[in-house]
User: What shape does this take?
Amino acid sequence: MFRLPEPAFRRKALVSAMMCATFPALAVAQENNPATLQVLGVDGLELGSQIRWQSEISQEQGVATTGPNAGTTIVTEQDAYAVLDLMARYDFARNWNATLNVNNVTDEKYIESLKKFGTSAQGFYGEPANASLTVSWVY
Assistant: This one.
């Protein structure tokens, strides 16, 4: 979805791409999901990865009214960054699978969004490295 930028807000691009390294002797891409790989010789094991990239963003936060920087425009900036997520899924029994997701593998610290509402402004950091394990029954 495309949104027009807010005044004094610059956001060049947001790209989310599913990436997989293919090793012909070790894995093959899945027909129904080319972003995952089936590991040859290990039935039921799939591997996947995702790289989320954001170009630099900046936001004018207002003008300092007190202190040594009074009268100075405050600008919050975030350089471009990339975040790597990994996934492994294993079908361990009929109708049962386990999925391990590891997000922000490199524990990149980044500002995910900057917003301005009238005279107030806010920014939110993205999630630090985290993992989840899900066991599912598929009927």
Notes: Residues 9-137 form one domain.
